[in-house]
Amino acid sequence: MKRLVILILVVLLCGCIGDKTTDTPSVPKNNVAKTDTNQNNIVPNETQNITNETKIPSEVPIPFEIVEMGIFGKEEHGKYIHYTKDNKTIIELYMGKKPTAGYSISISKITKKNDKLLVYINESYREEGNAMVVTSPYVIAEVNGTYDNVVFVFVGNE
User: Fold this and answer.
1) Three-state secondary-structure class, residue 10
2) Coil, strand or helix: which one is 16?
3) What is the number of helices (H) and of strands (E) in the chain?
4) Which among 69, 70, 81 is positioned nearest to 28, based on CA atoms?
5) Taxonomically, which superkingdom (predicted)?
6) Pairwise CA distance, residues 127 & 13, whole Å
7) I need a labelling partner for 13 at 20 to 30 A (CA). Which of 36, 71, 79, 135 fits?
8) In the beta sheet, which residues pair with residue 158?
9) Residue 8 backbone dihedrals phi, psi, to 5 degrees
10) Are the C-beta atoms of residues 73 and 134 closer than 8 Å to each other?
């Protein structure tokens, strides 16, 4: 009975968020740069060509707005997507199917470096008090301006 009440509360609290689905081009999750969290240095993936001799200018913070977030997303597999609409860049992050309600995904910051928009991603898991329900955590954000060169930087798990 207690589990049923908890499940109903989770569905009521988290299921209220609307699903704004759009047809969007996808960016494979393997196009993500990893970050060394001890030094906050970007470790480029194979699609980037940055050498030790290259001087990297400082990053400029870019304001962003979270448009939508929740735990019942539309994607079964982890996926990071970006596209432009009405002079804005839309960023969609999907964590994929997870076995409990304890998982979440978030954007810690968005910066601009040269012609690249860098989106820093955190994923987290909370062990205690999770409903045993399949979820698909997601977050959708928008940035003013159009950016074609978006790089997703996985910061780590919280």
Assistant:
1) helix
2) coil
3) 1, 10
4) 81
5) Archaea
6) 19
7) 79
8) none
9) -65, -40
10) no
